[in-house]
Specification:
The chain contains four helices and seven strands; from the N terminus they run βααβββαβαββ. It starts with 9 loop residues before the first strand and ends with a strand. A hairpin with a 2-residue loop joins strand 6 and strand 7. It is an alpha+beta fold and about 150 residues long.
Length: about 150
């Protein structure tokens, strides 16, 4: 009898060389995606930027800023063809664990009220709503609010 080993996704620091693939995912899944400049600025600022790969294929990525014992999850994205396969949960867990290791006591994030899938993920993970930012996101018809969520890490 032989066992078939499944490859496990690998998390690694995001690099400039990853940005073409990151931008392809970003542009495919968002109506108002981050720009390449947003990612370059995050890398240059030293934010925790990570890519999740399986067999060389980019599944997703996140960007976390940590300062003053607080983390802000700025971007967490999974390629459309890999969504709803628990990669988002795994990537969110990695982001929270990294924030904790970097000294954060809480993680904050913003999410569109229209993004029910992301809200469900964050709620299952234990995030709770703490506020609303009016007109935070660009939208096709003007601006959309953001729900502000937080997760204690202690």
């Amino acid at each position: 009898m032989s066992a078939v080993l499944k490859s496990a996704p690998v998390l690694a620091p995001m690099r400039d060389a990853d940005l073409a693939e990151v931008m392809a995912i970003e542009s495919a899944i968002y109506s108002h995606p981050w720009t390449r400049g947003n990612f370059v600025d995050s890398l240059n600022a030293g934010y925790a930027c990570r890519c999740l790969r399986l067999g060389g294929e980019l599944l997703g990525y996140f960007v976390v800023m940590v300062a003053a014992q607080e983390a802000h999850l700025l971007n967490l994205s999974i390629a459309a063809q890999h969504q709803r396969r628990r990669h988002g949960s795994g990537l969110l867990r990695e982001a929270a664990d990294l924030a904790r290791r970097l000294g954060a006591r809480h993680v904050f994030l913003e999410v569109r009220p229209s993004n029910a899938g992301a809200q469900a993920l964050y709620t299952r993970f234990g995030f709770r709503k703490v506020g609303t930012r009016r007109g935070y996101y660009p939208a096709h018809a003007g601006r959309e609010d953001a729900l502000v969520l937080t997760l204690p890490l202690t």
